[in-house]
Amino acid sequence: PVANATITPSPLSHQVCGGDPVALRCSVQVGSAPVTFTRLHDSREVARGPLLGLGDIDVGHSGIYQCVATNRLGHDGHHVFQALSPKLAPEVTPQGHWNRGGVTRGVIGSLLFLVLLVAVIVTWHHWH
């Protein structure tokens, strides 16, 4: 029977930014072939197969993802075994590649500092 189902994001991060491509891969540590996978998003079936490409992710992709691994044993396949993966809840932030919070604040802060520094230098030069 199948056991130890997992769901792994690619890239390996639980926080992703909007516009980033993301894929989820289902696998099992133990299981006789053939093993089938059903992927769940917020407890609803969204696809079948071991790989789910979400494409360019957005906040609508937030939620809980899981995989259900299934295999059938016996001559007529009447013994059905299932394993449910742990929950994966990627955090999707709406920023794009150039708007990643800390980077944007750092650039704006640096520019404001430079403008202030130039104003101080010009004022000092004008008085002397």
TrEMBL record:
Q: Which residues form a coiled coil?
A: none
Membrane-traversing stretches = 107-127
Report the InterPro entries cross-referenced here: Ig-like_dom (IPR007110), Ig-like_dom_sf (IPR036179), Ig-like_fold (IPR013783)
Q: Which UniProt keywords apply?
A: Membrane, Transmembrane, Transmembrane helix
- Provide the Ig-like domain boundaries: 1-85
Q: Name one Pfam family in it.
A: Ig_2
- Keyword Flavoprotein, does the record have it? no
What is this protein's record name? CADM4 protein
Organism (species) = Pomatorhinus ruficollis (streak-breasted scimitar babbler)
- Its gene is Cadm4
